[in-house]
Amino acid sequence: MGRSATADELSRFITLSAGEVFPKMLKDKSYRLLPRDSFRDLMVRGQMPKPKYATDIFDCDDWALCFDADMRRAWANRSRGKEALACGQVLLTRPSGARHAQNWYMDAELVFRLLEPQSWIEDIAPFGDVKRIEQLTG
Predict the structure, then answer these.
(1) Whole-model pTM?
(2) CA 48 to chain centre
């Protein structure tokens, strides 16, 4: 299901889709890029309950961290730990200068998607309300 990519390949795919991102921290050797529907199905099945949004207590960076952890746990269980999932967290800057944390994933068709972890709304490049992606982890 989907396709496999090394960290170097995934890094190149991200750069082609989203532009240069620095720093880009892909920590695993290889990644699984799932079809979009399979990723969304994993989202539905893998999310744990989270507290309500609370500014500076449980806000965007906390939501992104928890979403990422839930997806990694769900995928590790499903794949029996054979490879990492092509997803993670981003820190980005809006045109207004505001900073925001979200999640990202790359699907099997090599579409890089930003994902709002609270609403599950996706955005694909070109990202209209993103000035730049400051940091990417995966």
Answers:
(1) 0.89
(2) 17
